[in-house]
C-alpha cells in the first residue's frame, strides 16, 4: 500500500527499533495483505526502523502474500503456529525498542510476546491509525465511489417503499439492491428506523410497519475497494407536519453551516459547536445527542472526531462525516454526508439531501 515509509518515520521519532502490527486492518493498510476475516490473526507484520518490513503468514495465503513482495516488504511463509513464533523471535532478537499495538493486543497475547522475546515491550496507541487519518488521492477516490454507490442504492430503494411495509422488508430490499451495485459487503448493518424508532440513533431495524406521518430514517453505507461509505437521510411518509418540516429545515441548516465552517487547520470541536450553537439558539441542544461526525476509511469509525471534547485538528486528506441530528418524541431527523477539506473549504461527496414526502 506504500505507507511503510510513514510508519518508519514514526518509529524514528519515538526512538523505537521495530513495531509488531497485529490489527488486520492496519496490516492491510501497510502491506495490502487481506485474509479471510478481519477479526482473525491470519498474519503478523513487523515494521523495522532500518530495514524492509516483514509479513508473516501461513501456507494457506502464500500465493496472495508473495504477490505483495517488494523492496520494502519481505514475506515469510510458515507451516504452523510454532514456526510463526520462531520467525518473530529471530527477526527481533537483536533489537531493543519494540512496540506493539496497545489497543489491539490482548493481555494474554502480550504476555506470550513478552515471554517469547524476553524483554519489555512498548505499548503504542494509534501507531497506524494516526497515519490512516490522512488519505491519499486513491483512497479518497475509493470513498467517493462508495458514497456514490450508496446514494444510488438509496434512490432505488425509495421507489420500492409502501405504507404498511415492515422496516425489515425495506432493509432486505436495500441489501438486495446493494449486492447488485457492489460485490463487497456493506460497511455496517443498515439502520431503517420509522416513527418513534428514528429517535434512537443506533436503532436495530425491526418489524414495525411504516405509517403515514412517520419520519423514516436510513443510515447505511456500501464499500468500494475495501473503503467505506456512510450516509443518512430522513424522509417523511405522507405529508410532514409543520414541526417535522421545521426540525428537518433546522438540521439541514446546521449541516450547511458546519460545512461552511470547514477550512484547513480548524479545530474539530469548533465545527461541532457551529451546529450545537444553532440548536442551542432554538432551545433544542438537548435533542442533539451525539457528535457531529467521525473519520471514515477502511473502517466506518476512524479518527478524527467532530465533538466538543475532541482535540483533533482538521486538515486536507482527512475524510469525515458531518451528521447533525435532532431526536424528538415522534422520531428523529439526521442528515449525513461525507466531506474532506480541499482548497481551504469543504468538498462534499455526492448529492445534497432533499426534503422528501413519500406519497406513492
Structure in words:
- By secondary structure, the chain is an alpha+beta fold.
- It has two domains: about 5-130, Creatine Amidinohydrolase, Chain A, domain 1, CATH 3.40.350.10; about 135-360, Creatine Amidinohydrolase.
- Helices cover about 35% and strands about 25% of the residues.
- The protein contains ten helices and 21 strands.
- It has helices spanning about 5-15, 25-30, 60-65, 80-90, 105-115, 130, 135-160, 165-180, 240-260, 270-280; strands at about 20, 45-50, 55-60, 75-80, 100, 120-125, 190-195, 215-220, 225, 225-230, 230-235, 265, 295, 300-305, 315, 320, 325, 330-335, 335-340, 345-350, 355-360.
- The strands form seven sheets. A six-stranded mixed β-sheet has the order 4-3-2-1-5-6, with helices on both faces.
- Helix 7 crosses helix 8 (about 165-180) and helix 9 packs antiparallel against helix 10.
- It is elongated.
- The protein starts with a helix and ends with a strand.
- The model has no long low-confidence stretch (mean pLDDT about 95).
Amino acid at each position: 500500500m506504500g505507507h511503510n515509509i510513514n510508519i518508519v518515520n514514526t518509529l524514528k521519532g519515538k526512538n523505537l527499533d521495530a513495531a509488531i502490527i497485529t490489527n488486520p486492518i492496519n496490516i492491510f493498510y501497510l502491506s495490502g495483505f487481506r485474509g479471510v476475516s478481519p477479526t482473525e490473526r491470519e498474519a503478523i507484520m513487523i515494521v523495522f526502523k532500518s530495514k524492509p518490513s516483514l509479513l508473516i503468514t501461513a501456507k494457506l495465503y502464500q500465493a496472495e502474500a508473495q504477490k505483495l513482495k517488494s523492496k520494502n516488504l519481505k514475506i515469510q511463509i510458515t507451516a504452523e503456529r510454532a514456526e510463526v513464533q520462531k520467525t518473530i523471535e529471530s527477526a527481533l532478537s537483536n533489537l531493543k525498542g519494540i512496540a506493539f499495538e496497545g489497543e489491539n493486543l490482548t493481555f494474554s497475547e502480550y504476555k506470550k510476546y513478552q515471554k517469547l522475546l524476553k524483554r519489555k515491550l512498548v505499548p503504542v496507541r494509534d501507531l497506524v491509525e494516526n497515519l490512516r487519518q490522512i488519505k491519499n488521492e486513491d483512497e479518497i477516490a475509493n470513498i467517493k465511489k462508495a458514497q456514490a454507490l450508496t446514494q444510488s442504492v438509496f434512490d432505488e430503494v425509495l421507489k420500492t417503499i409502501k405504507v404498511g411495509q415492515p422496516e425489515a422488508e425495506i432493509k432486505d430490499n436495500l441489501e438486495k439492491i446493494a449486492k447488485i451495485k457492489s460485490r463487497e459487503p456493506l460497511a455496517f448493518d443498515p439502520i431503517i428506523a420509522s416513527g418513534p424508532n428514528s429517535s434512537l440513533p443506533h436503532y436495530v431495524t425491526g418489524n414495525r410497519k411504516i405509517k403515514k406521518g412517520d419520519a423514516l430514517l436510513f443510515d447505511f453505507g456500501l464499500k468500494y475497494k475495501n473503503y467505506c461509505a456512510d450516509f443518512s437521510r430522513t424522509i417523511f411518509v405522507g405529508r410532514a407536519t409543520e414541526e417535522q418540516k421545521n426540525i428537518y429545515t433546522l438540521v439541514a441548516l446546521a449541516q450547511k453551516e458546519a460545512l461552511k465552517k470547514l477550512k484547513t487547520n480548524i479545530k474539530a470541536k469548533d465545527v461541532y459547536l457551529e451546529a450545537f450553537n444553532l440548536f442551542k439558539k432554538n432551545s433544542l441542544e438537548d435533542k442533539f445527542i451525539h457528535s457531529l461526525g467521525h473519520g471514515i476509511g477502511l473502517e466506518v469509525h476512524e479518527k478524527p472526531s467532530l465533538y466538543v471534547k475532541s482535540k483533533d485538528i482538521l486538515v486536507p486528506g482527512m475524510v469525515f462525516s458531518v451528521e447533525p441530528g435532532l431526536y424528538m418524541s415522534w422520531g428523529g431527523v439526521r442528515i449525513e454526508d461525507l466531506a474532506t477539506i480541499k482548497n481551504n473549504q469543504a468538498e462534499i461527496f455526492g448529492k445534497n439531501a432533499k426534503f422528501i414526502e413519500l406519497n406513492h
